[in-house]
Amino acid sequence: MVVLNKIYTRTGDGGQTALGDGARVAKYDLRVESYGTVDETNATVGLARLHAEGETDARLAAIQNDLFDLGADLCRPGMEKDAEAEYPPLRMADAQVERLEREIDAMNEALSPLRSFVLPGGSALAAHLHLCRTVSRRAERLVVHLAADDDVNPAAVRYLNRLSDWFFVASRAANDDGARDVLWVPGANR
């Protein structure tokens, strides 16, 4: 259980922050930027949930929890040291990726194939889910960049890749199963 009695610590006033293993790094470090953008994604999901109900809201709540798991995973470098850690670090699991895939497949069954690219919009929920999609894509780019030079859980990368797909398919479902999708018309305003 996490207990936060004091919110400010002043330890970051010099432009550094602590990673999950205690190491101090610059606040602009790529690892910090990566899990910070995951946190930003989570905030956009919170906005989307203001427009969601029922099963969609429950799925978004699960995604928010997953995103905290993902942040915890990313803030802890050195997967090779996990076995010797006093407390086992929280890592993303393939089961979380597989759940997203099952949900994508279930939502996609009701959708007709696309004949054009979709513009963000339609319903309020769909527009917010598109925002979630674009922010999660940015998080994915940062995590992939981090993984090129540092130790990153492969399940974390897979999760972010599926998550943006989940948001896209969910946005179409939120637009009356695609009937209210706003389609791109190439060159329409020339």
From TrEMBL:
Pfam families: Cob_adeno_trans (PF01923). Its main location: cytoplasm. Pathway: Cofactor biosynthesis; adenosylcobalamin biosynthesis; adenosylcobalamin from cob(II)yrinate a,c-diamide: step 2/7. Coiled coil: none annotated. GO terms for molecular function: ATP binding; corrinoid adenosyltransferase activity. This is Corrinoid adenosyltransferase. GO terms for cellular component: cytoplasm. Keywords: ATP-binding, Cobalamin biosynthesis, Cytoplasm, Nucleotide-binding, Transferase. It is found in: Cytoplasm. It comes from Oceanicola granulosus (strain ATCC BAA-861 / DSM 15982 / KCTC 12143 / HTCC2516). It catalyses: 2 cob(II)yrinate a,c diamide + reduced [electron-transfer flavoprotein] + 2 ATP = 2 adenosylcob(III)yrinate a,c-diamide + 2 triphosphate + oxidized [electron-transfer flavoprotein] + 3 H(+); 2 cob(II)alamin + reduced [electron-transfer flavoprotein] + 2 ATP = 2 adenosylcob(III)alamin + 2 triphosphate + oxidized [electron-transfer flavoprotein] + 3 H(+). GO terms for biological process: cobalamin biosynthetic process. InterPro entries: CblAdoTrfase-like, CblAdoTrfase-like_sf, PduO-typ.
